[in-house]
Design brief:
Elements: H1 7-25, E1 35-42, E2 48-55, H2 61-70, H3 72-83, E3 90-95, H4 98-115
Parallel strand pairs: 2-3
Antiparallel strand pairs: 1-2
């Protein structure tokens, strides 16, 4: 039997897709470049949503976060038009640093494996 998805999970995925289109097509802020949305967490009552995003260039994180948070009103309004839901969650944008942490862990593992002596064959 397939797993049921809650309404908040379905709403979160819909918000993630719609935000990607809105930022790509309609948001004209020059501070927002190369943004990808990694996850959206919506509260059970659909009143708030935390949107996690990543940026291609690490130097643009602060500017992009400020631009996304300043465009919250516009994005929420457009989401309301596209989703056609009675409740449109309040948006909060947070930079997702899991990609950088994963690559640094990968580098540490590679460094540790390179420094280990080679096992001798018996």
């Amino acid at each position: 039997m397939p797993k049921e998805f809650s309404r908040s999970q379905r709403m979160a995925e819909q918000i993630r897709r719609e935000l990607a289109e809105l930022v790509r097509d309609e948001l004209k802020d020059p501070r927002v470049k190369w943004v990808s949305f990694t996850a959206v967490k919506v509260s059970r009552d659909l009143s708030s949503a935390v949107v996690y995003f990543s940026v291609l260039n690490d130097e643009d994180i602060e500017d992009t976060t400020a631009a996304m948070n300043s465009a919250t009103g516009f994005l929420r309004h457009e989401l309301g038009r596209r989703i056609r839901s009675r409740i449109v969650p309040a948006l909060k944008f947070i930079h997702d640093d899991s990609i950088q942490r994963g690559s640094s862990m990968d580098a540490l593992i590679a460094k540790a494996r390179a420094s280990d002596p080679e096992p001798e064959d018996e």
